[in-house]
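Reading a protein record of the kind used here takes little practice once its layout is understood. An example of such a record is reproduced below.
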Amino acid sequence: MATARSQPNSKFEMTKTEPEWRKRLTSEQFRVLRQHGTERAGSSPLDKEYRQGTFVCAGCDLSLFTSATKFNSGTGWPSFDAPLEGAIGTTIDKSLLMTRVEVHCRRCGGHLGHVFDDGPKPTGKRYCMNGVAMKFIPS
């Protein structure tokens, strides 16, 4: 579901106009990354991707997570217990009548998903990401 929230372009090192983003991204990537949408649970092949490699932002190709931090959360979305250092930013999301921590790409501001405090040790975090917001690069 898309929301009206948006990230101001000026605070990210990679900025594009809406038409430029639409040209670069698929319609589903645009809906999730630029309009804060959520893909349907279980719809991303990245949920079942367990080869060694790196998950990068579909908007700007910034490395976000490694396969070493990926785990099966059973939620239907790719989940990780930790991002790569300096890869993400977070904001408070008060949509849907609840407070959550939104995760976005620190370089382009693209909406990736949310982080929760119910992940495995040692971090206890579950970075629940939209697969369409990322690409997988095998190593």
